[in-house]
Design a protein that fits this description.
With 428 residues, the chain is of the alpha+beta class. It has helices spanning 21-28, 65-71, 124-134, 142-148, 158-170, 188-199, 203-214, 246-257, 262-276, 285-289, 311-325, and strands at residues 36-44, 50-53, 56-59, 77-80, 98-101, 106-112, 179-187, 360-363, 368-371, 380-384, 389-400, 403-409, 415-419, 423-425.
């Protein structure tokens, strides 16, 4: 629980009043992502108020009925609510309203994105109903499902309720899109900001996670030139399971997903993080790695991201530095900290020493003193815990006080002397 260590427990939600492009640029400084890339990607026209598909008219929140009619080219119309009661043309559209084209006597049902309750407003109750549906704690009828599918991809996921939450808290727009495909040049920071908007995850957490996965210089996972998978990118190493050919496995996964440019890989990879982890309560770097959350999707201690158990603390340092450098440590930040019973007094970090090396030994005892010299009267450098792995420098380094002493080195570089009786060769 240090100033930086606590950041592994920070909730990963995107907050536009705290997170911005400048902060992302600071994280990316002196990395391979401190650059621009030219990509072919879909762009959306966010000025569209309404869009018709079959018998449904999809509408953005806050649009008036007259704006809906104008967007779909309807000049002669009447509007009624779900009880067939007339509704004013100047009022806001709501899910369940019926638009009737009086010229041709054809009717359409209104679906306002995010308006699950059908009252023309986007409120916390809408957000809560979607979240409960995803967590299998509630139900939605067919019309409510259409309103809940804010992203319009035919599925109701964490990214949908995240956009509604941001709309309520920060007025972040919920838009319809006319999709066009074109070449465009973007900074990586812009792509990550877009990923934050789409996924609801903090752009700072996204940037730090990518650096953790592929390094500050990048890797073959994001080069776009890996043999057999040219033109594919996997910034989060989805599918790159441990063992042989990890990069090839990850890029095969990316190819299956159609991640054929940097933009798509980052944005869709972030949305996958939101849907697979955040939506089930694993919404901190710590919970990603250690699943101690009870949910309806995964058993305790399963569904844990990556094998490196020091990943959360490494991310925490980078996140703390980002918040410090951008003078936002005083912002309203939410930390979710698990509290355990019966914890030991001390937990050792994993050793960086290879236990299969011939000079690797472990400490066979508790509270073993590491001393400056092979003498029980000399200063204690540190007290060693049981089973810590160390490197043997000199097996018989002296005899004193009834002990034969050995010189060792810890994984952090500290050297000193311990009684030989407290050393045991790894693997024995």
């Amino acid at each position: 629980m240090t100033d930086s260590g606590i950041f592994q427990f920070m909730e990963m939600s995107y907050n536009p009043s705290v997170h911005n492009k400048t902060g992302v640029e600071n994280i990316l400084k002196n990395t391979f992502m401190d650059a621009s890339v030219t990509i072919t990607a879909e762009r959306e026209d966010s000025s569209i108020k309404a869009k018709q598909k079959d018998s449904i008219i999809y509408v953005v929140p806050g649009a008036k009925n007259t704006e809906v009619a104008a967007a779909i080219g309807m000049t002669k119309f009447k509007i009624t609510d779900s009880n067939k009661k007339a509704v004013s043309n100047d009022s806001n559209a709501a899910t369940g309203y019926i638009f009737t084209n009086t010229e041709y006597n054809t009717s359409y049902t209104i679906v306002v994105l995010g308006d699950v309750n059908g009252d023309g407003q986007i409120k916390a109750t809408d957000y809560a109903r979607i979240k409960n549906y995803i967590m299998e704690k509630g139900t939605l009828n067919n019309l409510e499902k259409l309103a809940a599918d804010v992203n319009g991809d035919g599925q109701i996921k964490a990214t949908d309720y995240a956009r509604i939450k941001n709309y309520i808290m920060t007025d972040s727009p919920i838009t319809l899109s006319e999709v066009t495909t074109a070449k465009t040049t973007m900074r990586y920071s812009e792509i990550i900001m877009k990923a934050a908007e789409e996924s609801g995850i903090s752009p700072y957490s996204i940037a730090v996670k990518i650096i953790q996965e592929v390094g500050r210089k990048g890797s073959d996972s994001v080069s776009g030139t890996y043999p057999g998978y040219e033109g594919y990118y996997n910034f989060f190493n989805w599918g790159a399971t441990d063992g042989n050919d990890a990069i090839a496995k990850g890029l095969q996964y990316a190819k299956g997903k159609g991640w054929n440019n940097q933009y798509t890989s980052i944005v869709e990879g972030s949305k996958q993080m939101a849907d697979n982890y955040v939506s089930v309560g694993q919404n901190t770097a710590y919970f990603y790695k250690f699943n101690v959350i009870s949910n309806n999707k995964h058993s305790l201690y399963t569904h844990q991201y990556m094998t490196n158990i020091q990943d959360p603390s490494s991310q925490a340092k980078n996140l703390y530095n980002t918040y410090f450098d951008n003078n936002i440590l005083e912002a309203s930040l939410n930390f979710i900290i698990p509290v355990y019973d019966n914890m030991p007094a001390k937990c050792l970090l994993p050793s960086s020493i290879n236990p299969s090396a011939p000079t690797s030994y472990y400490i066979n005892g508790t509270d073993v003193r590491l001393r400056n010299s092979p003498n029980i009267g000399d200063n204690i450098v540190v007290t060693l815990g049981e089973n810590e792995v160390v490197t043997l420098i000199q097996e018989n380094a002296g005899t004193a006080n009834g002990y034969t002493w050995s010189k060792i080195r810890r994984s952090n570089g500290q050297e000193g002397y311990v009684a030989k009786d407290y050393l045991k060769k790894c693997g024995t």
